[in-house]
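We were asked to recover a plausible sequence for a given structure. The inputs and outputs are reproduced exactly as logged, with field labels preserved.

PROBLEM: sequence recovery
POSITIONS: 313
GIVEN STRUCTURE:
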């Protein structure tokens, strides 16, 4: 198996979707219809992820990210092509695959809602058959990376969104998996909690050499955690390179949002290497009084748009 954690070769996943008709008659007709179309959710993706890598797996909504991850976790079987995770074909050996991965998907928690976090940890320890020594070692590592004491004995239902997200990430790493999949781990969180979670993920990756596949629309997550970025759109891989390569093209782009005196917001995408932001602000202020200013990192969708425009290679 060598140093590869994940290997995909010409991976495809198609779905048959019924061509639906409008109205009541159309709904009745659909019950007996064989009029299907094929949707290519993932098309001919080749990808190799090495052990210990932290990959930003990016793309707009509907690009095929979730479908790919579901194939990596064994939830879906590919239509064609090859995929191995830690040398295992995930959809054939689902149990063995699950023993060696951790998953945090959106707001779907693997914790027990009414139990304190420590009790969920104990249950997960038993489920994954983690030895007492390894379990205690992992708790000590958690304590060295983040202050977990305030949440250990707190029922999950009483936690804030940030505390639940932090706890879910801790739970995903508890059995020391080879690979962890993180889907939008910082969505909806404030700046302080985002920084804490990014620091935790980076620390666990460094200490345990865990391979991490991160899907996110927050380029701040990517900047803080990933050295390599893979972008998928319309089911196809369109970019695979290191973060420095991407930054060399897009690192100076920001979205400037100005709240004007009439309570409206105006947005402008600015290349700071070519345009002085203060000049833009002063020019806008001469036309209408500015009440608030926001400077936002370029979004994944804007990055992909610029890649399509031929500004990256």
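RECOVERED SEQUENCE:
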């Amino acid at each position: 198996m060598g140093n590869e954690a994940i290997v995909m070769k010409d991976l495809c996943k198609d779905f048959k979707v019924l061509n639906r008709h409008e109205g009541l008659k159309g709904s009745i007709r659909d019950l007996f219809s064989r009029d299907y179309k094929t949707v290519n959710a993932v098309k001919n993706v080749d990808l190799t992820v090495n052990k210990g890598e932290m990959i930003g797996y990016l793309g707009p909504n509907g690009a095929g990210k979730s479908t790919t991850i579901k194939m990596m976790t064994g939830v879906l079987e590919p239509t064609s092509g090859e995929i191995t995770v830690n040398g295992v074909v995930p959809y054939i050996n689902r149990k063995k695959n699950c023993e060696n991965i951790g998953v945090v998907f959106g707001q779907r928690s693997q914790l027990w809602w009414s139990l304190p976090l420590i009790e969920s940890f104990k249950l997960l320890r038993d489920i994954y058959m983690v030895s007492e020594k390894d379990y205690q070692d992992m708790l000590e590592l958690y304590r060295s990376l983040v202050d977990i004491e305030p949440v250990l004995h707190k029922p999950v239902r009483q936690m804030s969104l940030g505390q639940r997200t932090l706890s879910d990430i801790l739970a995903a790493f508890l059995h020391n998996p080879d690979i962890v999949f993180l889907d939008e781990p910082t969505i909806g969180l404030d700046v302080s909690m985002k920084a804490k979670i990014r620091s935790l993920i980076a620390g666990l990756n460094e200490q345990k050499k865990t391979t991490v596949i991160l899907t996110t629309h927050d380029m701040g997550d990517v900047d803080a955690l990933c050295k390599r970025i893979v972008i998928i759109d319309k089911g196809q891989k369109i970019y695979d390179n290191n973060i420095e390569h991407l930054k060399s093209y897009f690192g100076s782009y920001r979205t400037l949002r100005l709240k004007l005196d009439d309570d409206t917001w105006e947005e402008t995408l600015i290349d700071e290497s070519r345009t002085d932001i203060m000049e833009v602000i002063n020019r806008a202020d001469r036309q209408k009084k500015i009440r608030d200013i926001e400077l936002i990192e370029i979004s994944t969708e804007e990055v992909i748009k610029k890649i399509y425009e031929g500004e990256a290679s």
